[in-house]
Structures are given as structure tokens and as C-alpha cells.
Design brief:
The complex is a heterodimer of chains A (about 110) and B (about 110). Chain A has no helices and eleven strands. The model of chain A has no long low-confidence stretch (mean pLDDT about 95). The termini of chain A are far apart. In chain A, the strands form two sheets. In chain A, strands 2, 4, 5, 6, 9, 10 and 11 form a seven-stranded mixed sheet that branches. A four-stranded antiparallel sheet of chain A has the order 1-3-8-7, with no helix packed on it. Chain A has about 110 residues and is mostly beta strands. Chain B has about 110 residues and is mainly beta. Helix content of chain B is about 0%, strand content about 60%. In chain B, about 35% of the residues are buried. The mean pLDDT of chain B is about 95. The chains are: A mainly beta (about 110), B mainly beta (about 110). Chains A and B meet through strand 4, strand 5 and strand 10 of A and strand 4, strand 5, strand 9 and strand 10 of B.
Chain lengths: ~110, ~110
């Protein structure tokens, strides 16, 4: 059973398109996240949701809009994709002081 | 500003060596610290989690220590194996987010 699952695993799209990445966790965690790993492999937080409520929005362009329909899901929608959005996007979840559990990542390539 | 630094950036060792990876953080008001492993093109695998009140955690050949007051953590790998080759990431939990170091790329030669 996959604890944190993301779809799709790979996404290649043209500049200007709108795309979504989906994330689901079956761990019963209250908090979910989106992290971005850039071309230099540096990981940085984008958003954090706790019980469907946005907690952290780390100066991400408003072309990125997270949506949490319920506690187990956190999707990421990106409008008007730009070349600089190419990266690997990781979803994660956490409960209390337990560690983060990460999904396997979505590699987004904008051409 | 909350920053995490990992040293060295890369490390190449022969099989069997014991090695230490270092992590330092600027803000000591941490909740916990997590060490991850990332294989090329793959996701993050959690290795060890140390709560802010703990001094160390052990799992098999891995031992992680934490000195919160000095803003340091180390990951000790005993008897390294080629299968340990990966990028090791230190991540500090500041309550609702992880702040990551840039990682140490480890290569263990057979």
C-alpha cells in the first residue's frame, strides 16, 4: 500500500498550458505539503495544509493554486506554465511530531 | 533566517569505511530533525527522525546525533557499502515546514 501517492509521475507540457498534479495519503495524517525540488536538487516548501486549511504559502506565484477537497487529498494546479516551473514536485504528509512521509515525486518538464 | 547547511557537499569513500555527514542549522528553535536518503530520480526515504529533546537515534548501521544548542546534527554510517551510495538530506522541522540542506552526495566504491 502506497502511503503518499502522486499522479502523474511524469508531466511534459508546453509553455502557457494549465496542469494539475494530484496527491493522496492513506495515513490519516492531518497535515499535507507541496515541496519543489529545483534543477540544483534543492528542496523548498511551497504550501502546507492542516485539515483542509492553508497554513503556509511560501511566496509562491499565484499561478500555483493548491486545493484540498478533504484531509487525505492535496492537489496542485498550475496556470500559464513557464519554463522555470520545470522541477520535481513532492507531496508529503505528517501527523503531530512524527516525521514527514513523502510521495515519489512528479517530474514536470515545460517545453 | 532559517538556513540548513550540509558538509561535505560530496564524499567518495572505499567500501567498509565509517563516515560522518554533517548538518548545521541557524535557528535552534526546532521541533525535530529528519535525515533522508534520495536515490537518483527517486523520492525521499526517511532514515532517522530525532525529536528536539533527544540526543541521538540509531537504526542499523546508521546513527544520528543532535546538539540543538549548537545547531548541529551528524549522521554516522558504519561499515559503508556500495548500496549506501545516494544523496543524504538533512531537514529541520520548524513546526509546520521542513527546511532542507542542499545534501551530501555519497559514493561508496567497491
Amino acid at each position: 500500500d502506497t502511503a503518499v501517492s502522486q499522479t502523474p509521475k511524469y508531466l511534459v507540457t508546453q509553455m502557457g498550458n494549465d496542469k494539475s498534479i494530484k496527491c493522496e495519503q492513506n495515513l490519516g495524517h492531518d497535515t499535507m505539503y507541496w515541496y519543489k525540488q529545483d534543477s540544483k536538487k534543492f528542496l523548498k516548501i511551497m504550501f502546507s495544509y492542516n485539515n483542509k486549511e492553508l497554513i503556509i504559502n511560501e511566496t509562491v506565484p499565484n499561478r500555483f493554486s493548491p486545493k484540498s477537497p478533504d484531509k487525505a487529498h492535496l492537489n496542485l494546479h498550475i496556470n500559464s506554465l513557464e519554463l522555470g516551473d520545470s522541477a520535481v514536485y513532492f507531496c508529503a504528509s505528517r501527523q503531530g511530531l512524527h516525521g514527514h512521509t513523502f510521495g515519489s515525486g512528479t517530474r514536470l518538464t515545460v517545453v | 533566517k532559517q538556513e540548513v547547511t550540509q558538509i561535505p557537499a560530496a564524499l567518495s569513500v572505499p567500501e567498509g569505511e565509517n563516515l560522518v555527514l554533517n548538518c548545521s542549522f541557524t535557528d535552534s528553535a526546532i521541533y525535530n530533525l529528519q535525515w533522508f536518503r534520495q536515490d537518483p530520480g527517486k523520492g525521499l526515504t526517511s532514515l532517522l527522525l530525532i525529536q528536539s529533546s533527544q540526543r541521538e537515534q540509531t537504526s542499523g548501521r546508521l546513527n544520528a546525533s543532535l546538539d540543538k544548542s549548537s545547531g548541529r546534527s551528524t549522521l554516522y554510517i558504519a561499515a559503508s557499502q556500495p548500496g549506501d551510495s545516494a544523496t543524504y538530506l538533512c531537514a529541520v522541522n520548524y513546526g509546520n515546514k521542513l527546511v532542507f540542506g542542499a545534501g551530501t552526495i555519497l559514493r561508496v566504491k567497491s
